[in-house]
Amino acid sequence: MKLKEFLKKANLGGKAKLVWYYFVIWLKMGKNAFMVYLNQKKILAIFLIGKIIRFVLFLTFLYFLVSGAGDLAGYTSDEVIFFFLSFNLVDVVSQFLFREVYRFRTMVVSGDLDLVLVKPLNPLFRILFGGADIIDFITIPPLVAATFYYGARLNPGFLEVVFYLALLVNSLLISAAFYIAVISAAIVTYEVDHTVMIFRDLSRLGTVPVDIYKDPLRFVITYIIPIGIMLSFPAKAFLGVLGIKLILVSFLFGAFSLFFSLRFWEYAIKKYTSASS
Amino acid sequence: MRRSGIKENINKAVVVSGLVKNFEVLEKGARNIDRIKSLLKPKKKVVTALKGISFSIGKGELVGFIGANGAGKTTTMKILSGLLYPTAGFVQVLGFNPWDRKREFLKRISLVMGQKNQLWWDLPAIDTLELNRAIYEIPHLTFKKVLDELVEILDVKDLLTTPVRKLSLGQRMRFELIAALIHQPEVLFLDEPTIGLDVVGQQAIRDFIYQYNRKFSATVMLTSHNMSDLVDLTKRVIVIDKGEIVFDGKLTDLITNYAKEKIIKIYFSGDVNIGSLEKICKIRRYAYPEAVISVDRSLAAFTAAELLQNFPVADITIEEEGIESIVRRVFRGEAVNG
Amino acid sequence: MVRLTMYKYFQVGKTSLKQEIAYPINFVMWRVRNIIQILLVLFLWDSLISDPRKVLFGYSRDMILTYIFGIMLVRAFVLSSKSMDVAGEVARGELSNYLIRPVNYFFYWLSRDFASKVLNLSFVFVEFSLLFLILRPDFFFQTNIFYIGFFIFSVFIGILIYTLFLFITSSVTFWMPEMGWGAHFLLNVVLVEFLSGVLFPLDILPQAIQKVINFLPLPYLVYFPLQIYLGKQSTYELVRGFVVEIFWLGALALFLNFIWKKGLKVYESQGR
């Protein structure tokens, strides 16, 4: 009886329906984005080739460099490569999911955002997930395979693997929080491109373990601009060199950043709808 | 209309009462030093866009909303569709408070703004429409039926699979309308739907709006700078000027209210001294032997008599000022108190 | 006549500079991005050779840090070019605006670039000093005036080669207007990143690969000038380097001339 009431209150059926509703729309938008790319097959190919070349060359470079020097900040070359792969995993998946953010400025400036807001669909959902990037999608499976292969070579414990996966999800949440903050800032200041580009540049600092940087830079890019938490901590947890305290700090950071960016979004959207004519 | 109770509201699609909208505008100086100062200590200026307007629109009505640029038309539209939240006053659309932006509400309205797009640029329109089908949760059969009907009326059936970027502006606007109407909204807000279109395109959109209003008995609110839009489509118009409603009534009444002048057409039978003609009236056009002059309503009879007396007149007619020229004056924001 | 022509391009540069200063945020952001990009390389090597007595791939700590600080400087000169906009101008058909005027389009962009480099240089000077004071790296000062002279000369040729490179890449848009950005990404971002020496000095690579790379134009953008500064080139290598570099300068110029003429025909026939 009580369980029934509880279930009724929780309205799980309704929630599942809502999730399904959004999932279907996400698929449709993804399909549309994919169709757009299909119109530009050559460009797709060029960018794909460029990204793969860049990835392979950098990987080779890191391998030779670290094996030549013996170690990098105490990590072996296999470990450094695992850092690099984890970085790419977070980077590529978030690029794949949140690609639409790059088009947001145009949407604000042209006013097309108005037509998004009058739809019975969470506007944030449309803006963040509206254009899943197929180029990045293609690269995800081989990347996962490579990460798995190198990860297995490092003989991790069960708990380490669990922490690693959980921290990867946490990184995606932080990344989502960052993009939400960016689009909110875009509404308030009309500026996106530079912020995003600088963040992209900064996050490339995370291709190698953040341990190589010296304070105060290391502190800043670990905790303030959370590149360390996002890109280095999962791999560190995997290698068992991240204390449980810092793992908890990461999750707290993820939760807080998402919370605050959502508040910022609410503020921004209220500002948008109270300004301009 | 304002306090007559809930009963009347049932038949009303839109009820607005004492609606005020203020904007905060940051004052930026012209000189660089002022700009830096304004960064440190922003000076805010409050601009009142709507000064407590009230009106209501019945279900199935088609109402034109006119006024000069910056009079507050678009602001009102945006408030009614939930894009802007009001500073003060009461707003209800289909029994909802628009600003809550409830899904049930948004599913029953639509907003079309000329020059703002929802169609995916590189894809055929059908892909956007399919996406909207999912967003508005339209059953497949209904979707197909409504779509067939809409493309039929707008005559764009063959273009459904053409990438939007390859369409002309007129064709694109038609698909924008279809995308906005595929969920059969009960209330439709149209902000400058014919802007930038050629005459044929404008006519197609107009015919369509008229038919949609009839067929689906939808409530339509329309702003336009295009006089033909208003003259062809709307029986009732609301004129807004500097955030206040200065007229709300039949379009024909607007003319009698606003027409200050009458038009006199004269055919002369002999030579005319233009100088002496100018002394008694305002010449709009002169090409011998025809002259078109305008005079104040009250002086029309007197001037006509004078003309007949002093000039070689073959024929003379006195007409009301045309509706187009009145509406044009309203757009210019000429304060005309009926 | 010559003076008049020079004055014309001087004016082009001046106007371009003014335009760049008109958007100070864009410019500052671009400089900030440059600094961030160098940080990865800097700390990577700093961490790899933390011991001053250690020699890795033939580089001691002071040599490698000097190399990386040198990258900042040479990048600002050679790789900070605005000529990539050529692709956009061709694709959008704005090239026509120049074809009807008495200007040489290549020199037009070159003057814009030089103006831009002057601005960049002043910023790099500040950045360089700041980073130097903060990090206090072990630094190798070249005292041989000949090496410094050759260094400056090779940077100058590097600028020309890179501009030619950008123009040639942009020529793709004559045939495929939408490909400009893709071609730029592949050639001038990815390849330059690995083969010009902005990520690592090329002589850490195996000898066989080096031999091939040295015959490509890319190492002459960053790596070769810095090798001269560090005095790491033997006289033979120096002469060979300059011969190859100047050969590429001529070859690329001829190639651009050829491809540009062909492209213009396509451009005009399409009436863009």
Structure description:
The complex is a heterotrimer of chains A (277), B (338) and C (272). By secondary structure, chain A is mainly alpha-helical. Chain A has helices spanning 2-10, 12-38, 41-69, 77-98, 104-110, 113-117, 123-129, 134-153, 158-189, 193-204, 217-224, 227-238, 244-272. In chain A, helix 3 packs antiparallel against helix 4 (77-98), helix 9 runs antiparallel to helix 12 and helix 11 crosses helix 12. Chain A starts with a helix and ends in a 5-residue tail after the last helix. Chain B is of the alpha/beta class. In chain B, the strands form 3 sheets. A 6-stranded mixed sheet of chain B has the order 5-6-7-3-8-9, with helices on both faces. In chain B, strands 11-12-10-13 form a 4-stranded antiparallel sheet, with helices on one face. Chain C has one domain (2-270). Chain C has helices at 2-22, 24-48, 61-79, 85-91, 96-99, 105-135, 145-170, 172-175, 180-195, 207-213, 223-230, 235-270; strands at 55-56, 59-60. Chain C has a two-stranded antiparallel sheet. In chain C, strand 1 and strand 2 form a beta hairpin. The relative contact order of chain C is 0.12. At the A-B interface, helix 2 and helix 6 of A face helix 3, helix 4, strand 5 and helix 5 of B.
Care to count the β-strands of chain A?
0
Q: Report how far apart the termini of chain C are.
A: 33 Å
Give average pLDDT of chain A, whole number: 86
Order of helices and strands of chain C: HHEEHHHHHHHHHH
What portion of the residues of chain A fall into strands of 2 or more residues?
Answer: under 5%
Instruction: Please give the order of strands in the largest beta sheet of chain C.
Output: 1-2
Q: Which segments of chain A are poorly predicted (pLDDT under 50) over 5 or more consecutive residues? A: none
Largest interface: A-B, 27 and 39 residues
SSE inventory with pairings:
The complex is a heterotrimer of chains A (277), B (338) and C (272).
Chain A: H1 2-10, H2 12-38, H3 41-69, H4 77-98, H5 104-110, H6 113-117, H7 123-129, H8 134-153, H9 158-189, H10 193-204, H11 217-224, H12 227-238, H13 244-272
Chain B: H1 6-10, E1 12-26, H2 32-40, E2 44-58, E3 62-66, H3 73-80, E4 88-93, H4 103-106, E5 109-113, H5 125-135, H6 140-154, H7 169-181, E6 187-191, H8 199-215, E7 219-223, H9 227-233, E8 236-241, E9 244-250, H10 251-258, E10 261-268, H11 274-280, E11 282-287, E12 290-296, H12 300-310, E13 313-320, H13 323-331
Parallel strand pairs in B: 3-7, 3-8, 5-6, 6-7
Antiparallel strand pairs in B: 1-2, 1-4, 8-9, 10-12, 10-13, 11-12
Chain C: H1 2-22, H2 24-48, E1 55-56, E2 59-60, H3 61-79, H4 85-91, H5 96-99, H6 105-135, H7 145-170, H8 172-175, H9 180-195, H10 207-213, H11 223-230, H12 235-270
